[in-house]
Each structure stands twice: as structure tokens, then as C-alpha cells.
Write a structure and sequence with these properties.
The chain has 4 helices and no strands. It is mainly alpha-helical.
Length: 95
């Protein structure tokens, strides 16, 4: 990302303005450093456990081999049939 100064604003003015905004934010109870720290902890806690087979499934989902359209059609048909079966069971349960 490129950061540029607004037209008519010098670097010195931008720095002074940023410091004033930082002071006002802290006076209002906003601490960017604390927010950054908590965000880092959250990302650290969000570890994803992917097993061997799951990893392959994830890769195949996003990087499908275009040379195997019949395999995709079979998978899609199976998925549609599963959805239809689930819907039919839901309707039967309500009747």
C-alpha cells in the first residue's frame, strides 16, 4: 500500500496531526497497541487442524483438475442427491 500526503499538507503537518489524533484517541480510552496485541493473540489462537485427507479435499476444491469434468459431474450429482434426500426427510418429518 502506498501512503501519500493530502494536497497542501506537509510531512511535518501530517506528523503533528497524527500525534494529536493519537493523543485524543487515548484520552477517549482507545489504545491501538492493546487492540493490536489482542488481534495477534486471536490470530494465534485460530489454528486450523487439517488432516491428510482433508488437506487433499481442500486443495481439490480450490484447484480442480479441469481434465476430469466427469468426476466433478459425479461429485455434483452426488451432492444434489444428498441435498434432495435431506429435504425429503425434512418434509416427511413435518407431515
Amino acid at each position: 500500500m502506498d501512503l501519500t500526503l493530502r494536497d497542501g499538507v506537509t510531512l511535518q503537518e501530517a506528523i503533528i496531526s497524527a500525534k494529536q489524533i493519537d493523543e485524543q484517541s487515548k484520552a477517549a480510552g482507545f489504545y491501538q497497541e492493546a487492540l493490536d496485541h489482542v488481534a495477534r493473540q486471536g490470530y494465534g489462537n485460530a489454528s486450523f487442524e487439517v488432516g491428510g485427507e482433508e488437506g487433499v479435499d481442500i486443495v481439490e476444491e480450490f484447484y480442480m483438475d479441469e481434465a476430469k469434468p466427469e468426476q466433478q459431474q459425479t461429485h455434483d450429482l452426488s451432492l444434489v442427491q444428498d441435498i434432495q434426500k435431506g429435504l425429503q426427510q425434512s418434509v416427511q418429518a413435518l407431515n
